[in-house]
Amino acid sequence: MKSRKYSRISRLAALLLAGLASMSSGAAMPETEFACKVRVLGGKIGLVLVQADTRALAEKSAVGVQAFTTDDMRGRTTSVLECIVPNEERFSDYQFQQFFENLPL
């Protein structure tokens, strides 16, 4: 069971790094972290974590990167459904909010 937990943490860390790598490396790191509910290739729902100055930039940054899907897989993001600021906002979809809250971040 522990190996699965660490595997999930590793995948989430990789997703965060992928989101950060898509931003310009010469610019200062934005202060706001966003959690985005996304759709991936094949239609599955997933999560991407990104740092951005605005919600619009977060949505733009989340497209095309690897997302962690609700079925414990990964997929490339095709569209963004919703972005929130964790600890300040909640996803409108209760089940997705529960998925997000139960991830070992």
**End-to-end distance:** 16 Å
Structural class: alpha+beta
Largest sheet: 4 strands, antiparallel, barrel
Q: Please mark out the parts with pLDDT under 50 across 5 or more consecutive residues, or reply none.
A: none
Bulk shape: globular
Strand content: 25-35%
Q: H/E element string?
A: HEEHEEH
Give a count of the beta strands, DSSP E runs of length 2 or more.
Answer: 4
State mean pLDDT (0 to 100 scale): 84
How is the secondary structure organized here?
Elements: H1 2-21, E1 32-40, E2 45-52, H2 55-62, E3 66-69, E4 74-84, H3 94-101
Antiparallel strand pairs: 1-2, 1-4, 2-3, 3-4
Can you put this structure into words, describing what you see?
It is a single chain. The protein is an alpha+beta fold and 105 residues long. It has three helices and four strands, in the order H-E-E-H-E-E-H. The chain has a four-stranded antiparallel beta barrel with strand order 1-2-3-4. A hairpin with a 4-residue loop joins strand 3 and strand 4. The model has no long low-confidence stretch (mean pLDDT 84).
In a nutshell, what does this entry contain?
This protein is α+β, with helices and mostly antiparallel strands.
